[in-house]
Write a structure and sequence with these properties.
The chain is of the alpha/beta class and 220 residues long. The protein is built from 8 helices and 8 strands. The structure holds D-xylitol-5-phosphate (DX5) and zinc ion. The site of D-xylitol-5-phosphate has 22 residues, from β2, β8 and α7.
Length: 220
Amino acid sequence: MVLVSPSILAADFSRLGEELRRCEEGGADVIHLDIMDGHFVPNITFGPVVVKSIRKETSLPFEAHLMIERPDLYWERFAEVGVGWITVHAEVKIPLRPLLREMEGSVRRGIAVNPGTPLSRVEPFLDMLDFLLIMTVNPGFAGQTFIPEAALKVKEAVHLREKEGFHYLVGVDGGINAVTAKTAVAYGADVLVAASAVFRGDVVENIGRLKSAGGGDGQD
Ligand code: DX5
Ligand code: ZN
């Protein structure tokens, strides 16, 4: 069954605790935290201080999607405040292999791949990954439109996993709603990350809709 991962970027930040509890009620699987530094992407969000304060509001696992130039300098700060999955971007200018080695044993390791980046860029690291996040928008903001060509990489990622015996989950992030979720799941996606489609309207119903788009036991 597909996993639903609400991105709090579209949540009401003045009542995050309540929003997280609604996610739990709706059957969300992982909470997606979009961490932006204003350099890797043209937007700034929040850091470990905020994550620490919302950690006590839910028992759901946290994934930090680090859209920052120096994940090597910050990933541990997120791990220390209870983030169990750390996803770094394939496009950062620092070497990924030593970083992934450093993370081994502490957190689940993920790499995110922008729409313009081919999977060949991360092929050397696939055996080290727990999570491969296919970006279906250019990162920076919630509420953008799904890029269908980018989602084709899901198929490729699943094919490589089966062929080589890798174990990563494949996620999609950006413009995911009940319609685009169907495409992503048909391609083999295991994890649906969504901000707007979860937090605009009723959170519990919205998560149900995404689950059923993935053939799960949602409400419609
Ligand atoms: C984009 C973020 C996404 C974003 C998704 O930079 O990585 O996680 O919050 O937002 P929606 O689901 O609204 O496209
Ligand atoms: Zn994200």
